[in-house]
Design brief:
The complex is a heterodimer. By secondary structure, chain A is of the alpha/beta class. Chain A has helices at 3-10, 12-27, 34-46, 50-67, 73-85, 113-126, 143-154, 167-181, 198-217, 235-247, 264-273, 294-302, 306-309, 313-317, and strands at 101-106, 131-136, 158-160, 185-190, 222-229, 251-255, 277-281, 289-291. In chain A, helix 10 links the parallel strand 5 (222-229) and strand 6 (251-255). Chain B is 58% helix and 9% strand. Chain B has helices at residues 2-6, 8-15, 27-43, 48-64, 73-89, 116-129, 146-157, 169-182, 200-213, 230-241, 258-267, 288-295, 301-311, 318-325, 331-343, 346-353, 357-361, 368-379, 383-387, 394-404, 408-450, 464-476; strands at 104-110, 134-139, 161-162, 187-192, 217-223, 245-249, 271-275, 283-285. The chains are: A alpha/beta, B alpha/beta. At the A-B interface, helix 3, helix 4, helix 7, helix 10 and helix 11 of A face helix 3, helix 7 and helix 10 of B.
Chain lengths: 326, 477
């Protein structure tokens, strides 16, 4: 199954709800009334856009609708995906494309960092990179074992120290080992921490600092990637803001877009913090972590369920993007 | 937007900025205020449909409510909203019920990463403190190393962990009950794998576990950061597994946990516990009122205001306040402050009530006894010494220590703290001076309104950072 279909599948529930809502809007008749805009905003809020981003999307869309004198609600709807896609900050970052590169994964507890590291390791091996994992989560019980299992699945070497070791030193040693072994894709997992924990955030600042410094010495660009659970609500913004302020994050990875109704937080935080989304995790399979294409994401979020599609031919007539997702 | 969180009251204050306190709230006032409330609730991730109903219902209430003269219009609306929220969240704390059977079985379910394993360990710790003999069961056969994690946590709190053989969680669960009987354990806590509510197979697995051990309690663990979809998730879990209570996890962050409200509104299931951090002891009973205020992003500010009004029989005499501001502090003032703090429920309560105070307190232990020891030392001083701490030489200190029944170091430390506090007050005094001059410029009207918000007597200008410093000093004693 093409990844876009899977993304589509993953977002099916959001789509269903949002789609239903939009269809309801269409059934109201072609009039673009005040109530239409209000319900559209509600639909976006229900998809976790947050009140601010939802209002902004509606405002922009309204503005466009007036400028282009869009004839009816269906036409407005056709423009919606593009408007949402335009909300995303753009960026060309991808540690898998850069070679060599080092990626450092940060985020709160349970956001899916370790799993993401495992999936990227596998993707790296698949494109012929020499991958090395670093287990700088020296805090969580059994974090080592979990990462170790992923290392075995992807068949890549891993650097680990016992629980309680200074995570910065593990990062340092990982890079040292990478230099020795000639690894060209270094993936470092860190312990999950709440952005509100000053002490733990300071510790992480050190890990990032040490990694950047050591990597710079070997000419290795470092990508600090924030991993966020797609189920997160508006607190995702607070998380991203704090991590970004402390660590100067390069990009965001959205995980667990599988089967749940969310994803709107990705729009809100990418827009408000100007952070590019570089990957989305859309399933539990090892190759379910995919590059991010804004318009695909927006379309997947919005496109109506199969039955409804027929009634909105304009959407399908639009040119489909080519292989944007190389 | 975070900054907006902290200050729903501030936002409302600005909405009502042009209004003077009136005998009644007009419909326009309320509409205006409810627009802000709506935003606050949405930012707290309360489900938008719940918000809609709630706002409509509250409006009706607010229109007919009697307003309290002692509060501003904004505070009046907040008070009504907070009260309504509290009622919706369940008014009274609900306790977990046990049956007569030994062992009792508790099964934890939830999405991946919601915090089940941690919650299981915390629950075990809590029950152990209540003289139960819990057994933890690792029935998550899917996530790599999940059982190892539970085993490590179990070791840390001294609770045995049953791991079982094979990959059939229902079988593991059944064996664990027998193991509990053999080992004279009276509560079995089963940690199950995280599962998506739409994953039929995994839901069937959970039902199989339930059928195998017939748990007295099935608790659903819900991440406080979950967004709008929490409603769909708990509904699905409710339909599939009929859980009977909820644990809200990760409340130690700054998520306002609006999901709790949605859960309660949609399923009607009680929230039994909130889980707040990494420490095993951080699983606590759920208090609807606190949660309501948290959702509104206002700490326990309102009740603190009320308390302050109630408890401060009389403000410190103006001259005394002036002296404090000039940093002419003596040990008598220490005692005055201490008594004020105690009236308000101790330093911990005070800190928690400040917006953001909950998170500032996290991890830090507040030693309430420190204040009393301090008072004991001061009581052993002569009046002259209290007023002029510079008198305290070595032999005087030794005498005081003997009188208060503490080592001499404690007296030394208190003197040191006194110096620090004095320094702090000097710093605050400058700030207070600046605030005062700003206020003056705003004219009469503004001043009158400002004075409607009573500050803590004697602690008037202490900010959160300063409170933290103060608390650190006390904790170090």
């Amino acid at each position: 199954m093409a990844w876009r279909d899977r993304l589509s599948d993953g977002l099916a529930r959001t789509r269903q709800r949002l789609g239903e809502q939009l269809n309801l809007l269409l059934e109201r008749g072609p009039d673009v009334s005040e109530a239409f805009w209000e319900q559209l905003e509600e639909g976006l809020i229900a998809a976790d856009f947050g009140a601010q981003a939802a209002t902004l999307v509606v405002e922009r869309l309204r503005d466009q609708a007036t400028r282009q004198a869009l004839p009816d609600a269906a036409a407005v709807r056709a423009l919606l995906a593009q408007t949402i896609a335009d909300m995303f900050a753009s960026g060309n970052l991808d540690p898998l494309v850069q070679n060599p590169s080092c990626a450092l994964f940060v985020g709160i507890n349970g956001s899916g960092k370790t799993t993401t590291v495992g999936k990227i390791a596998k993707a790296g091996v698949d494109v012929g990179r020499r991958v090395l994992l670093g287990g700088a989560d020296t805090y969580r019980a059994a974090a080592n074992q979990q990462l170790d299992i992923w290392a075995q699945r992807a068949d890549v070497p891993i650097i680990q120290r016992e629980r309680g070791t200074d995570p910065a030193s593990v990062a340092y040693e990982t890079l040292q080992a990478a230099e020795r072994s000639g690894a060209d894709l270094v993936l470092i997992d860190t312990a999950g921490r709440l952005h509100t924990s000053d002490e733990l955030m300071r510790e992480l600042t050190k890990v990032v600092g040490v990694t950047r410094k050591r990597a710079a010495a070997m000419g290795l660009p470092v990508f600090t990637l924030l991993v966020i659970d797609a189920n997160t609500g508006q607190n995702g913004l607070a998380q991203a803001r704090e991590f970004n302020e402390r660590l100067d994050v390069d990009g965001v990875i959205i995980t667990k877009l599988d089967g749940t109704a969310k994803g709107g937080i990705a729009v809100a935080l990418s827009h408000q913090l100007n952070l590019p989304v570089i990957r989305v995790g859309i399933g539990e399979q090892i190759d379910d972590l995919q590059p991010f294409v804004a318009l695909d994401f927006a379309r997947a979020l919005l496109s109506a369920p199969a039955t409804a599609k027929a009634s909105v031919p304009r959407l399908n007539n639009q040119e489909m993007p080519g292989d944007l997702h190389v | 937007m975070t900054s907006m969180f902290d200050s729903l009251s501030a936002r409302l204050q600005s909405v009502f900025g042009g209004l003077r306190s009136k005998g009644r709230l007009s419909e326009d006032d309320i509409t205006l205020a409810l627009r802000e409330i709506r935003m606050a609730l949405l930012e707290a991730d309360v489900n938008y449909r719940v918000v809609k109903d709630f706002v409509a219902a509250t409006k009706t209430k607010a229109l007919s409510a009697e307003i309290l003269q002692s509060l501003t219009p904004a505070q009046n609306v907040v008070a009504i909203v907070a009260q309504e929220l509290t009622e919706l969240l369940g008014s009274q704390p609900v306790l977990m019920q046990f049956s007569q059977r030994i062992p009792n079985v508790i099964m934890l379910v939830g999405l991946q990463g919601s915090g089940k394993t941690t919650a299981a360990a915390k629950l075990a710790y809590r029950l152990q403190k209540q003289k139960h003999r819990p057994l933890l069961v690792a029935a998550d056969v899917w996530r790599p190393a999940a059982a190892d994690q539970l085993e490590t946590l179990g070791k840390e709190i001294g609770v045995p962990v049953f791991r079982g053989q094979g990959d059939d969680p229902a079988l593991i669960a059944r064996q664990s009950v027998q193991a509990a009987i053999d080992d004279l354990r009276d509560v079995v806590i089963i940690d199950t794998a995280g599962r998506l509510h739409i994953d039929e197979e995994m839901m069937a697995e959970a039902r199989a576990i339930r059928a195998a051990v017939a748990p007295e309690n099935i608790l659903m663990v819900v991440d406080s950061m979950t967004g709008q979809d929490v409603v769909t998730v708990v509904e699905a879990f409710g339909n599939e597994l009929d859980f009977n209570g909820v644990i809200i996890s990760k409340l130690d962050g700054d998520a306002r946990g609006g999901g709790a409200l949605s859960v309660r509104a949609v399923t009607g299931k009680p929230i039994l516990f909130v889980s707040e951090g990494e420490k095993p002891s951080s699983l606590q009973e759920f208090y609807p009122e606190r949660m309501a205020k948290r959702i509104l992003g206002m700490g326990d500010m309102l009740s603190l205001i009320e308390k302050a009004q109630l408890e401060a029989e009389e403000d410190l005499a103006a001259g005394e306040a002036e002296r404090l501001a000039r940093a002419e502090l003596n040990f008598d003032d220490f005692i005055t402050i201490n008594r004020q703090v105690r009236k308000l429920g101790g330093i911990g309560t005070l800190l928690k009530a400040l917006p953001g105070g909950e998170s500032a307190l996290r991890g830090a232990q507040v030693d309430e006894g420190a204040l009393d020891r301090m008072e004991a030392i001061i009581n052993s001083m002569t009046q002259a010494e209290r007023l002029k701490p510079a008198l305290l030489n070595g032999s005087r200190r030794a005498r005081i220590a003997a009188g208060a029944g503490v080592p001499t170091q404690a007296v030394n430390q208190l003197v040191k703290q006194y110096e620090q506090t004095k320094k702090m007050l000097k710093h605050l005094g400058i700030e207070a001076e600046q605030t005062r001059s700003r206020k003056n410029r705003r004219g009469k009207k503004a001043r009158r309104r400002t004075s409607r918000h009573p500050t803590l007597p004697g602690l008037g200008s202490l900010g959160r950072g300063d409170m933290k410093k103060l608390e650190d000093m006390l904790a170090n004693q």
